[in-house]
Specification:
Elements: E1 22-29, E2 38-40, H1 46-54, E3 61-63, E4 66-79, E5 83-90, H2 95-106, E6 111-123, E7 129-142, E8 152-155, H3 164-180
Parallel strand pairs: 2-7, 3-7
Antiparallel strand pairs: 1-5, 1-8, 3-4, 4-5, 6-7
């Protein structure tokens, strides 16, 4: 298994889950080596996002990378210092959207993953493939993301929601934060 390298843990905001399906998270986290040996570099999505924005669209939001199963839409997709941040809504009027929300509530599913083509890359001294420029095709809610740090960070709060609904999400987010925390044996 590839080592995960990041200089700081992601600051997660966790709230109880609301019935409207609004969520935010990171579809890709910069500086981490994923299970395929790839490490996305800051700025890798800039040109692709500019093309999506110029077309007045955002990448599709899919279930498990299945182009036949969109499960919502994004309101915002942008790079920040941590990675590729996404904010959007799950389509709760669809069967798959309701299933996705139920799995998020249980803490059984919270992974995000990107579908992309590599435009520019290099090899790092440790053998990882440094992804410098990517063409972003889609973003999916997945069971097992290649980049273990790519997770739904929060789902919109609802007044009066039971606190046990957030317990599983908090446990998953702590697990993800531990996975991307700097390793002491790397010092």
């Amino acid at each position: 298994m590839a080592s995960i390298e990041i200089g700081r843990p992601v600051a997660w905001r966790v709230k109880a889950i609301a019935p409207d399906g609004a969520f935010a998270g990171y579809a890709s986290v910069f500086g981490t080596t994923d299970s395929e040996g790839d490490r996305v570099q800051p700025g890798a999505f800039a040109a692709s996002l500019a093309r999506w924005n110029a077309a007045g669209r955002l990448p599709p939001f899919l279930w498990q990378h299945d182009m036949a199963q969109p499960i919502g839409r994004f309101d915002r997709v942008f790079e920040d210092a941590t990675g590729l941040r996404v904010e959007g809504r799950i389509a709760l009027e669809t069967m798959r959207g309701r299933e996705a929300l139920a799995l998020l509530r249980l803490g059984a599913l919270d992974g995000l993953s990107i579908g992309y083509s590599t435009v520019g890359a290099a090899i790092a001294g440790d053998g990882a493939r440094l992804l410098k420029t990517l063409e972003l095709h889609e973003i999916s809610l997945v069971t097992l993301p290649a980049n273990d740090a790519a997770r739904v960070a929060w789902v919109k709060a609802a007044p009066g929601e039971a606190t046990e609904l957030s317990t599983a999400i908090i446990a998953n987010l702590r697990r993800a934060a531990e996975a991307i925390a700097p390793r002491k044996d790397k010092a």
